[in-house]
Each structure stands twice: as structure tokens, then as C-alpha cells.
Design a protein that fits this description.
Chain A is an all-beta fold. Helices cover about 0% and strands about 50% of the residues of chain A. Chain A contains no helices and eleven strands. In chain A, the strands form two sheets. In chain A, strands 2, 4, 5, 6, 9, 10 and 11 form a seven-stranded mixed sheet that branches. In chain A, a hairpin with a 5-residue loop joins strand 5 and strand 6. Chain A is globular, with a radius of gyration of 13 Å. The N and C termini of chain A lie far apart (about 35 Å). By secondary structure, chain B is an all-beta fold. Chain B contains no helices and eleven strands. In chain B, strand 7 and strand 8 form a beta hairpin. Chain B starts with a strand and ends with a strand. The chains are: A mainly beta, B mainly beta. At the A-B interface, strand 5, strand 9 and strand 10 of A face strand 5, strand 9 and strand 10 of B.
Chain lengths: ~120, ~110
């Protein structure tokens, strides 16, 4: 498998602030990373696919101007939740896929609470 | 209709029991299939891939029926540590699609 870290693991912020979440691939170079969101008692939903050196691909219904993704290196992708609101409170998880036919390996997740 | 459907449970079973989970998927072009395990407030972790011929890993057996678009997971001799949510996951057009999960609670 692959080893993925995320930082921070938990964040509590006031409504209107922006929050940056980092996802790092620790043991291989990831040209593609995936960002998911999970609301309580619901399944993981893919938000976007992060592509190293190019724009992210967003899923339908996900606002690209609200969820800014930067994948500037082969080991780091960041997700910034801009002007966060209470409805953005969720569990945000990133993943990597070592090769196209392989499964994905997930980071430990970031729990965001917006007051 | 959801692309991946699972019985949410919960399944409450005693230690040592055998329990089976089912999953159906709607996209017949799906390419690969997995079971993940997710503990409370943690990330999903790969339990096993699912192959057409069926495959076994210790106490866990996974089966796939492409004609019926049906996937199953059998857990034998349940342990307390098996308590978790089991996610049926389908690789559809190179994206992972997750079921909502089936909750298993193993009790002593």
C-alpha cells in the first residue's frame, strides 16, 4: 500500500474564515490525488481529482472557487475551503492511487467544524 | 437509484458468528471491486479486492457476480475487533464509488 498523511487532523474555525488542508504522499510520487468529503452517516463522496502541475477536475456540484485545490509537487496537494460556513463542516479525506489499476489508499482525514 | 447500494444494518452478531454482507452496483461497465473497512471517525482502509473467481483472505471471503452486478463479503468466526462499517466500493470509469456502508457490531 501507500502511506498518506494529512494535516491538520482536526480544525475548528469561525464562519467566514478559510481553512487549508494538506495531503502528503510519503512513499511514492503521486501525479494524481483525490479529495473526498464524508458527512455523518453518509458515504464518501468524491469532490475533485487533483492533478500535479495542472488544474484539478471537480465533480458535478462542487464549487471550484470555494474548494481551491493546488497540487504543486508530486508529494503534496492542498485543499482550501474558502469562506467556510457551518454546512461545510465535514470529514475531508484525501487519497492516492499508486497505479491506474490499483486501489486507493487514504489519508487519516481532517475533521472540519465551522462554528 | 444509488450507483452502489448496501444494506445499512446494523448487523448485531455474537462472537464466533458468520455474517454476510451484500452489495449491488448499477454500472455494468464497472471494472474493479473492493471491500473497505471504516472504523468510527477514521479513514477507510482496504480490506480486500474482489475477483470474479471469488477470493478468500483468512476469515474473509469475497465474491463477485458480474451478471447480477452483485458483490458479497462473508466473515467467519466473527471477532469483537471486526466491529466496524464495511464499505462496498466499485471502480467505475476510473473513479471509486462508495456504498454508504453496512454497520457490523460483534458482541461478547
Amino acid at each position: 500500500g501507500a502511506v498518506v498523511s494529512q494535516h491538520p487532523s482536526r480544525v475548528i474555525c469561525k464562519s467566514g474564515t478559510s481553512v487549508k488542508i494538506e495531503c502528503r504522499s510519503l512513499d511514492f510520487q503521486a501525479t494524481t490525488m483525490f479529495w473526498y468529503r464524508q458527512f455523518p452517516k453518509q458515504s464518501l463522496m468524491l469532490m475533485a481529482t487533483s492533478n500535479e502541475g495542472s488544474k484539478a477536475t471537480y465533480e458535478q456540484g462542487v464549487e471550484k472557487d470555494k474548494f481551491l485545490i493546488n497540487h504543486a509537487s508530486l508529494t503534496l496537494s492542498t485543499l482550501t475551503v474558502t469562506s467556510a460556513h457551518p454546512e461545510d463542516s465535514s470529514f475531508y479525506i484525501c487519497s492516492v492511487r499508486p497505479n491506474p489499476t490499483d486501489t486507493q489508499y487514504f489519508g487519516p482525514g481532517t475533521r472540519l467544524t465551522v462554528l | 437509484r444509488k450507483e452502489v447500494e448496501q444494506d445499512p444494518g446494523p448487523f448485531n452478531v455474537p462472537e464466533g458468528a458468520t455474517v454476510a454482507f451484500n452489495c449491488t452496483y448499477s454500472n455494468s461497465a464497472s471494472q474493479s471491486f473492493f471491500w473497505y473497512r471504516q472504523d468510527c471517525r477514521k479513514e477507510p482502509k482496504l480490506l480486500m479486492s474482489v475477483y470474479s473467481s471469488g477470493n478468500e483472505d483468512g476469515r474473509f471471503t469475497a465474491q463477485l457476480n458480474r451478471a447480477s452486478q452483485y458483490i458479497s463479503l462473508l466473515i467467519r468466526d466473527s471477532k469483537l475487533s471486526d466491529s466496524a462499517t464495511y464499505l462496498c466500493v466499485v471502480n467505475s470509469l476510473n473513479k471509486l464509488v462508495f456504498g454508504a456502508g453496512t454497520i457490523l457490531r460483534v458482541k461478547s
